[in-house]
Structures are given as C-alpha cells and as structure tokens.
C-alpha cells in the first residue's frame, strides 16, 4: 500500500484534480521548510496546486507546517493584525499600515506582519523602512520589546520564515502566482487573537474564511467589490465575521457611515518615499479620501478586536459596531494621538 505522505501520492492526488488532506499538505510543506524537498518536486506541487486551486484543507495544512518552523516571537498572542493579501493590482497607498497606527493609538495592541510590495507599488516593509520603523536587528526579542514599549511593532515575514528561502529562487523561475503568494496573512508568527484581513481574489476569500473557521480563530475578512483588499470606500464591501467556527456574511456600504464615495485614483500610491509622505500627512491630520479609508479600516480593525475581547458580538449588527469604533479612531487621529504613536514607534526602533 502506497504511503499517503509521499511525493508520488501527493503529486498523483493533485494531478488527478483531487484535494490533499490537511495531513498530506502539512507533510509536503514540512519537506519544503526543512529543505528536504527537491526543486523538481516543489515545482510540480506548486504547478499542480495552481491548476487545481487550493482547498481550505490544503491551506490549513500548509499554514500549520509553516508556523511550526517560524521563528518564535516571545510574549504571547494578545494582539491584532490588520493585513491584506495583496494582488489587487490597484497600486494604492498603504492603507492597512496607516490603519494599524491609528488603531494602536486608540489603545489596541497591533503587531503587523508583512513583506515587500505585492499589490501596491510599495509594500508594508518598503514604507516602514523609509520611515525608520524597521529595526536593524532580526532578533524576535527586539520586535517584541518595541511592541511591549509602544503597543505596535512590525514582524518582517522574510525574517521570521527562513524556510521560505528554500523556495524563493524556484518561485521566481516559475514566474506564476503560487500558494506562497497567499500564505503570508495566515502565518503571523505570534498567532494573533484577532485579525482584520483584506482579500483581493474573489475566488479565495471564502477559503481564507474557511481556514480561520477551521482553526477556531477570530477575524473579520473582507473584499471590496472592485477587488480592493481593504474595506472599501469606492463601492460595497463583502465582510465575513468569523468567531469560534461560526461565520456570518455582511455587505457594507461606507456611505451608511457618512463616508463619501471615493475613486481608486483618489487612493493611488507611488514609490516608498511618496507613500511615506502620504502616511506622515495622514497621521498629521490631512483630510480627504485617504484619511476616510484609513479611518474606516481602523474602525473595522477595532471591531475585530472587540469581537475577541467581548467574546463575540454576533448579536449586534456589524454596522452598529463599526460606527461605534469609527468614533473612537476618528478621535485618535484628530487628537494627535496617532501622530504621537508614530513618533513613539520611531523612537523605540531607533533606540535599539
């Protein structure tokens, strides 16, 4: 009888168009993370997954294996992550990054996990580097110390997942999107108690929801109707609330919160220096469409956190909860607290 956890079985299963079990997916990713998988096998795996489409079970297995090999970030998981998958190709400013600062300024602990650019011209890692918010040390204890001091910090994905280096050259040579393009938001090394996740790919959003539900996580998962991997001000937003395995779907129109419609062009970003200037201006109180969408996403981030701290808010309309949180984050920005949080974060990083 053929071993279920073997390359012949795994590849034959995928080529037949069938899904791997959680265990098989975890086994395959384990081989990649440890450097035990030949490039030929990894290439076949990634191509077959791309052709078939990843299942929830496969994503769960891959996630579990990646987290097993992530560098440990000490100090527990009592934190929020606000993140997008990237891949929307709309080249916007760094909305989730700005929202993270505002949320932290409102009193919610945020440990952002991100990387270089995918959908924007400038990724989280790019703009934070320009702003002096990425510590020189790759020691997880430094990331945690900054978090403990100021209530916000940044875990650079490339530093915390060294196993990804085993497949970096192959991914580049393949030249196609692979499962690694979507794993990032699922493999935060601290396993945050709450997540606010934007998903660009319409075909993937319910799969991300399924991963969170399978693992009993707390999250708000969303997608703008134009493909924006944020809570959108350019149109309606599909939002899934995930709590202890239960899922509720909503549709949100930001105009119901008094936020005017914007165009994608209003949110367009540029190079790291440009986006850093936009971030600085927004934290300083500059008004307009960027401020509007940052506050909206900050409010949804706080709503995700409230879902965790209140042990479920499913008895109350989501719109009502977001409206309450919008008042809080608006005050955090208008009062100068967000600017102070940005300054404190920079000082904490640069003192190390």
TrEMBL record:
It catalyses: N-(5-phospho-beta-D-ribosyl)anthranilate + diphosphate = 5-phospho-alpha-D-ribose 1-diphosphate + anthranilate. It comes from the Bacteria. Residues 9-70 form the Glycosyl transferase family 3 N-terminal domain. InterPro entries: Anthranilate_Pribosyl_Tfrase, Glycosyl_Trfase_fam3, Glycosyl_Trfase_fam3_N_dom, Glycosyl_Trfase_fam3_N_dom_sf, Nuc_phospho_transferase. Mg(2+) 2 binds at residues 229-230. Its EC number is 2.4.2.18. GO terms for cellular component: cytosol. Anthranilate 2 binds at residue 171. Anthranilate 1 binds at residues 84, 115. The keyword Magnesium applies. Mg(2+) 1 binds at residues 96, 230. One of its GO terms (biological process) is L-tryptophan biosynthetic process. Pathway: Amino-acid biosynthesis; L-tryptophan biosynthesis; L-tryptophan from chorismate: step 2/5. Its cofactor is Mg(2+). It holds the Pfam family Glycos_trans_3N. Residues 78-338 form the Glycosyl transferase family domain. Catalyzes the transfer of the phosphoribosyl group of 5-phosphorylribose-1-pyrophosphate (PRPP) to anthranilate to yield N-(5'-phosphoribosyl)-anthranilate (PRA). Belongs to the anthranilate phosphoribosyltransferase family. Homodimer. NCBIfam families: trpD. This is Anthranilate phosphoribosyltransferase. The gene is trpD.
């Amino acid at each position: 009888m053929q071993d279920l956890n073997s390359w012949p079985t795994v590849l034959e299963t995928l080529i037949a168009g069938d899904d791997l079990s959680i265990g098989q997916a975890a086994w395959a990713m384990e081989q990649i993370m440890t450097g035990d998988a030949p490039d030929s096998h990894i290439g076949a795996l990634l191509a077959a997954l791309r052709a078939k489409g990843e299942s929830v079970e496969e994503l769960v297995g891959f996630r579990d294996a990646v987290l097993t090999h992530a560098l440990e970030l000490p100090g527990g998981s009592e934190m929020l992550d606000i993140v997008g998958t990237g891949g929307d190709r709309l080249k916007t400013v760094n909305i989730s990054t700005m929202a993270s600062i505002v949320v932290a300024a409102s009193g919610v602990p945020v440990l952002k996990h991100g990387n270089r650019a995918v959908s924007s011209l400038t990724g989280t890692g790019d703009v934070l580097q320009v702003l002096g918010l990425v510590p020189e040390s790759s020691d997880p204890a430094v990331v945690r110390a900054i978090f403990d001091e100021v209530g916000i910090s940044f875990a650079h994905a490339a530093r915390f997942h060294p196993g990804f280096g085993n497949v970096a050259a192959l991914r580049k040579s393949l030249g196609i999107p692979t499962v690694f393009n979507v794993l990032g938001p699922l493999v935060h090394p601290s396993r945050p108690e709450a997540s606010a996740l934007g998903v660009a790919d319409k075909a993937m959003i319910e799969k991300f929801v399924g991963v969170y539900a399978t693992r009993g996580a707390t999250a708000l998962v969303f997608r703008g109707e134009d493909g924006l991997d944020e809570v959108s001000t350019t149109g309606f937003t599909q939002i899934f609330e995930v709590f202890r395995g239960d899922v509720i779907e909503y549709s949100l129109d930001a105009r119901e919160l008094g936020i005017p419609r914007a165009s994608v062009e209003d949110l367009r970003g540029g190079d790291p220096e440009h986006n850093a200037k936009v971030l600085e201006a927004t934290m300083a109180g500059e008004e307009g469409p960027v401020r509007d969408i940052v506050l909206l996403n900050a409010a949804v981030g706080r709503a995700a956190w409230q879902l965790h701290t209140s042990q479920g808010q499913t008895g109350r309309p989501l719109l009502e909860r977001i409206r309450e949180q919008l008042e809080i984050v608006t005050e955090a920005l208008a009062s100068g607290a967000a600017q102070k949080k940005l300054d404190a974060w920079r000082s904490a990083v640069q003192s190390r």
